[in-house]
Amino acid sequence: MVNTLSGGEQQRVSLARAILKPGHLVLADEPTGALDPQHAEVAFQEIKRLQTEYGKTIIMVTHNIKEARQADRVIELKNQMTVN
C-alpha cells in the first residue's frame, strides 16, 4: 500500500513509473528531495538516463544546485522573476 511507504520510497516508485510510462515528457518536482544523498544520486542518474536513452524531455524543479548544474538548460527564478 502506498500509505505505508516512506517519502523516499514513494519518490523511487514515482521515478520507476515515469520510466515505464509511454510519452516524451516527464515533469519532476523535487524528484530527489526526500532521498538520502546516496539514493538521490542514483535517482538523478536514472533521470538523466531517461533523457539520453529514451529521448524523454525532463522538466525538473529542484533546489539542489549540484543537480541543476548538470542540466542542459537552467532557468533560475528569484523573487518570482527569471534570472537568465
UniProtKB/TrEMBL annotation:
Protein name per its UniProtKB record: ABC transporter domain-containing protein
Positions of the ABC transporter domain: 3-32
Pfam families for the chain: ABC_tran
Species the sequence originates in: Lactobacillus nasalidis
Superkingdom per UniProt: Bacteria
InterPro entries: ABC_transporter-like_ATP-bd, P-loop_NTPase
